[in-house]
Recover the amino acids of this structure.
């Protein structure tokens, strides 16, 4: 596919912008992206993809929209580092790892557009990984517990409760 | 100590042995981005917080745990002069980003320069492993082993659902950027490159040129890397890259063979002219030298030229960069002087003394 700006070079940047539910696709080459002030990561200037991202986040239109949801998004900020959603969408970068928590409600669409996915399936850090596995197991047991209570199987429930307590005690702490 | 071992030699030791498919693949690089819990990312970190990051990370790779990977030396960016920084960038040992903004910035390098650990770049920690030729799997094995050593010593910012948390949303999840640097002159000459590059884009990889201002492919060298870091496992990312690069190698090989069959005389003439010009010119711009060195590399591979060796050509690719020329011939060179010294360096290396 050729760049839609110059029609000469191959388009190497593909992104979709959604404004008020209307989808626009862009296919441009790196030199045109750079001319438009949207630099490419890793190259001189390096701020690149972040401005593309802020295009994706499209705060302007979210803010001007009358929807309450847009206003709520506007009001988000990270209580750990103080970054506001507005700053995040301008910089295209998080201020700290807690930002992921405070901006969580806005991240799924962003990650879907950038990565085509919203959840990590790769490597787990060994220590935190063990904790995560343990947490997942506890969650499953808790669901079973709920069910057995509803079905009035109290013996099973007591057994499950003990297993949960044991796991919670054994859970590796960081 | 302004003259560092790392900036004296153009070619890192890791580059000297070829690796597989080295006539087409120059190098394989693995980069893993990680951050520490509780501290703001470098973008927002105060000077004290950046120091704290450095204090937590630096000792990890000077202890015994890292002995398997060689001896490591830590360089603080604020203790390096501008020229040394430039040379480290030209050797791909640090990013331009780290060189520019060095609040608590540091790099930990091993002796053969195949491992470069950047601290306080865009993320607190960036582990980079370099291998010659096509060795993405090998590079991953080393990078993840180094990651494990850090992980045993510090607490990473990690989330159950989002994976490794990074400063930029484009790195979240695995934090992994795997890339391969390839030399594709025949695909460029036969005008197939655009078609191939856009196909590469469609399978979740990006391509960009290396060196040169901006991202134009200078000297027919391209860098192919994964774009997606979330929702794929590391081995999926690496196997995808490996398989795409293997196919590109195949296309480049076919294109080279076709060039030899269809236009042997024209291609021989072009390569020999480039040799002649590199060996005799008095002034040489970077762009031209990169293009002509690319011709030489192709000539050696096609058997049209007997020498220079690929290793000498790799070395010239680095030495002809502005920072390195200044390192060799003097700190304050105008661009005209650089073009003159570049030509001199090329003449002296490639045979003619005139
Ligand atoms: Zn264009
Ligand atoms: Zn934050």
């Amino acid at each position: 596919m050729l760049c839609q700006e110059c029609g000469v070079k191959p388009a190497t940047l593909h992104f979709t912008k959604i404004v008020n539910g209307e989808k626009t696709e862009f296919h441009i080459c790196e030199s045109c992206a750079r001319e438009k002030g949207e630099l490419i990561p890793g190259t001189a200037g390096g701020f690149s993809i972040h401005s593309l991202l802020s295009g994706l986040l499209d705060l302007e239109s979210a803010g001007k929209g009358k929807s309450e949801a847009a206003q709520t998004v506007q009001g988000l900020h990270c209580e750990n580092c103080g970054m506001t959603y507005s700053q995040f969408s301008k910089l295209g970068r998080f201020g700290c790892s807690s930002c992921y928590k405070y901006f969580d409600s806005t991240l799924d669409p962003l990650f879907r557009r950038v990565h085509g996915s919203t959840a990590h399936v790769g490597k787990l850090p060994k220590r935190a990984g063990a904790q995560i596995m343990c947490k997942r197991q506890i969650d499953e047991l808790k669901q079973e517990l709920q069910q057995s209570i509803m079905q009035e199987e109290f013996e099973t429930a007591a057994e499950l409760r003990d297993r949960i307590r044991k796991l919670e005690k054994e859970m590796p702490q960081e | 100590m302004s003259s560092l071992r790392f900036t004296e030699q153009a070619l890192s030791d890791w580059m000297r042995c070829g690796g597989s498919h080295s006539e087409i693949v120059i190098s394989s690089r693995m980069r893993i981005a990680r951050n520490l819990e509780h501290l703001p990312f470098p973008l927002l970190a105060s000077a004290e917080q950046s120091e704290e990051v450095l204090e937590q990370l630096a000792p990890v790779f000077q202890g015994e745990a890292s002995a398997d990977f060689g001896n490591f030396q830590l360089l603080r960016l604020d203790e390096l002069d501008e020229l040394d920084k430039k040379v480290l960038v030209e050797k791909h040992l640090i990013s331009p980003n780290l060189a520019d903004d060095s609040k608590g910035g540091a790099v930990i390098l091993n002796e053969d320069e195949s491992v470069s650990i950047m601290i306080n770049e865009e993320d607190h920690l960036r582990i980079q492993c370099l291998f010659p030729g096509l060795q993405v799997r090998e590079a991953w094995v080393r990078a993840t082993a180094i990651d494990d050593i850090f992980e045993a010593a510090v607490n990473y910012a990690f989330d159950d659902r989002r994976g490794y948390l990074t400063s930029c949303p484009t790195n979240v999840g695995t934090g992994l950027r795997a890339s391969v640097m390839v030399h594709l002159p025949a695909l460029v000459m036969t005008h197939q490159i655009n078609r191939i590059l856009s196909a590469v884009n469609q399978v979740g990889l990006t391509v960009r040129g290396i060196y040169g201002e901006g991202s134009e492919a200078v000297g027919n060298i391209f860098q192919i890397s994964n774009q997606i870091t979330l929702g794929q496992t590391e081995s999926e990312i690496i196997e995808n890259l490996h398989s795409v690069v293997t196919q590109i190698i195949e296309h480049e090989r076919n294109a080279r063979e076709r060039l030899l069959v269809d236009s042997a005389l024209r291609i021989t003439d072009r390569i020999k002219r480039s040799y002649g010009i590199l060996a005799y010119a008095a002034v040489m711009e970077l762009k031209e030298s990169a293009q002509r060195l690319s011709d030489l590399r192709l000539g050696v591979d096609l058997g049209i030229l007997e020498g220079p060796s690929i290793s000498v050509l790799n070395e010239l690719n680095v030495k002809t960069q502005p920072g390195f020329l200044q390192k060799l011939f003097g700190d304050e060179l105008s661009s005209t002087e650089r073009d003159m010294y570049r030509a001199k360096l090329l003449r002296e290396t490639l045979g003619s003394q005139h």
